[in-house]
């Protein structure tokens, strides 16, 4: 059914900056050493199964445009054909990882039990293909936002039967992820939020969401899953207001329910923009709290007010993101997942490969620029200079003194501190030397 879907395409190779081959890497050389580590091991690229294989080219105003061979039916034969195409794509790209939702890879069953069984069957297929190809699983997750049952949320749903259905769905997806050696498991709220407070008990829903995530962590330890549990912030779409609005909101939620030592964040560039932040802001917030886990690399169209999930093409933006990541010590068990899709007019298999080639090259350029900035040390020196006053013993002592003692000392000094330049434009010019 799909054996020849990518017919005529060769595995993508690194050919350097002089190549004119649109299906060759110009900057991504997996074995290049950056800050003492292979580039592949820094970036840990993953292909998103949903956008690459399950997305049919539809949008809110029109139906499918791609007409892939495996889209013709919702049965296990077509799911297997989709898996054939997926792992052929992975072979051509040579990226080390992939990611999936349960609903991306298995057909919906006539019952919950049949859906779980279908996932177990496709897990058998994946296990064999992963053994054959060496492709690994960065993370698995469960789709609890598309089907009608999830319209009022999953763990936050007012119907306890939906909560139980969600628990079963997540258990099955975690079991599949664990069996396939996944290095993380992600929970994205989807519809964990509200449309109107007129019919919402916000406090109860947050408590139920906290209880659900606690049970996920408990089950992780029960089955011996060694991966990291991740939650993914997003401010809107599809709910008017989602409880996992941004990194800071998620961190506060995790601390409230005592999960800050068990759960980290999977951060997406497009979601950061929807929340009114830059990507590096979200990364820095998570890194400051020791909760930076993994990233979804994409971009939004800045002329649109929604999540367009386009492949990255802005090297300066990507460089600043990887600068924060490198300063934080890297992604650990996380990676760079391309939560991005080709445009609905990009119909050919070649477009699917080329989009990833371009995204991987942009990330490679960004990583190398970030590493060069760190090695140069200019930003670090400027940062140390700006906060140098806090190194003085009397300044450090203030942090443990009562307010009245600090005030008395300031009155005794009688000085009026004068501000110093933040040198923002100079620092921005400095960054531009590297990108």
From the 3D coordinates, which CATH architecture of the largest domain would you assign?
Answer: Alpha-Beta Barrel
Helix content: 40-55%
The gyration radius over C-alpha positions equals: 24 Å
If you average the pLDDT, what whole number results?
Answer: 96
How much beta, percentage-wise?
5-15%
CATH topology of the largest domain: TIM Barrel
Number of strands: 12
Compressed to H and E, one letter per element, the order equals EEHEHHEHHEHEEHEEHEHHEHEHHHHH
Q: What is the terminal separation in angstroms?
A: 44 Å
> Which word captures the global form?
globular
Quick one: biggest sheet?
8 strands, parallel, barrel
Low-pLDDT residue spans: none
Topology of helices and strands:
Blueprint: E1 33-34, E2 37-38, H1 39-43, E3 45-48, H2 49-54, H3 76-93, E4 97-101, H4 102-105, H5 112-133, E5 136-141, H6 160-179, E6 184-188, E7 193-194, H7 202-223, E8 228-232, E9 241-242, H8 247-256, E10 263-268, H9 269-274, H10 279-288, E11 292-296, H11 315-327, E12 336-338, H12 349-376, H13 378-386, H14 393-398, H15 403-413, H16 424-432
Parallel strand pairs: 3-4, 3-12, 4-5, 5-6, 6-8, 8-10, 10-11, 11-12
Antiparallel strand pairs: 1-2, 7-9
Helix pairs in contact: 3-5, 5-6, 6-7, 10-11, 11-12
GO cellular component, one term: cytoplasm
InterPro entries: Xyl_isomerase-like_sf, Xylose_isom_bac, Xylose_isomerase
Catalytic activity: alpha-D-xylose = alpha-D-xylulofuranose
């Amino acid at each position: 059914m799909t054996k020849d879907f990518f017919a005529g395409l060769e595995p993508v190779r690194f050919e350097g900056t002089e190549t004119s081959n649109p299906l060759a890497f110009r900057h991504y050389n997996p074995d290049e050493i950056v800050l003492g580590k292979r580039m592949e091991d820094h970036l840990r690229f993953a292909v998103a199964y949903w956008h690459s294989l399950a997305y049919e080219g539809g949008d809110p105003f029109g139906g499918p445009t791609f007409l892939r061979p495996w889209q013709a039916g919702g049965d296990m034969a077509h799911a297997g054909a989709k898996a054939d195409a997926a792992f052929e794509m992975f072979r051509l790209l040579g990226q080390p990882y992939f990611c999936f939702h349960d609903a991306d890879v298995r057909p919906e069953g006539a019952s919950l039990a049949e859906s779980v069984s279908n996932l177990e069957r496709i897990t058998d297929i994946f296990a064999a293909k992963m053994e054959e190809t060496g492709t690994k699983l960065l993370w698995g997750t469960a789709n609890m936002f598309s089907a009608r049952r999830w319209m009022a949320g999953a763990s936050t749903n007012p119907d306890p039967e939906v909560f139980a259905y969600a628990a079963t769905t997540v258990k099955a997806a975690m079991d599949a992820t664990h069996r396939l050696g996944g290095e993380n498991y992600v929970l994205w709220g989807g519809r964990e939020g509200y449309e109107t407070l007129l019919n919402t008990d916000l406090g109860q829903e947050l408590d139920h969401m906290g209880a659900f995530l606690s049970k996920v962590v408990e089950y992780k330890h029960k089955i011996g899953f060694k991966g990291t549990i991740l939650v993914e912030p997003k401010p809107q779409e599809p709910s008017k207001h989602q409880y996992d609005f941004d990194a800071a909101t998620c961190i506060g939620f995790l601390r409230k329910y005592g999960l800050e030592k068990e759960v980290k964040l999977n951060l997406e560039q497009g979601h950061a923009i929807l929340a009114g932040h830059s990507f590096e802001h979200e990364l820095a917030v998570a890194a400051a709290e020791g909760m930076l886990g993994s990233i979804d690399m994409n971009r939004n169209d800045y002329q649109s007010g929604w999540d367009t999930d386009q492949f990255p093409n802005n090297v300066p933006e990507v460089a600043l993101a990887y600068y924060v990541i490198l300063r934080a010590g890297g992604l650990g068990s996380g990676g760079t997942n391309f939560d991005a899709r080709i445009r609905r007019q990009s119909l050919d298999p070649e477009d699917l490969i080329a989009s990833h080639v371009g995204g991987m090259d942009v990330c490679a350029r960004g990583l190398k620029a970030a590493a060069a900035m760190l090695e140069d040390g200019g930003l670090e020196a400027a940062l140390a200079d700006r906060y140098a006053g806090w190194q003085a013993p009397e300044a450090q002592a203030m942090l443990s003194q009562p307010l009245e003692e600090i005030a008395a000392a300031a009155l005794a000094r009688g000085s009026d501190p004068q501000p110093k330049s933040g040198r923002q434009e100079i620092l921005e010019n400095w960054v531009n030397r590297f990108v």
